[in-house]
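Fold this sequence, please.
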Amino acid sequence: MRTRILRTVAVCSVMLLATLLVPPHAEAALTITVPATAAIGSTLPTFCSTTSTTITVTSTKKNYDLRIRSNTINNPNGKAKNGSGTEMLNSFQYATAAGGPFTDITALYVNVFSNQPIGSNINHTVYYRQCVNWGDGAGNFTIGVDYQVVEL
């Protein structure tokens, strides 16, 4: 019987960066609060691990879209990297529900939540998932994720 060696891969320490697209009218109140990090625990190849983060938005003048993308400078392919710059084989993913469906993140902004109503301190939970492949090396991997709020 062959012995199978399993590798544990500590997947992602997600650096979350918030970008605020300022509306043309200074009187429009628009804020976004994004936690600085979200950690996905270790997992074995062929398995996926998940976590979530809560983003708080205030828009008192207009409805808005909440958008997401991977950091275009450090993670233009939507994949987490280790300290030496090696990307994971699978793309980092996001969803609006714990069970998915999950979508691969890209370097282009896409709406996570569309046409959200006016309100103060509205919480939006975004779920993250990283699946590990046998070709991924063991270690810690990081991806930068940018958020953007755009008033409609």
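Confidence is low (pLDDT under 50) at residues 1-13. The chain has no helices and eleven strands.
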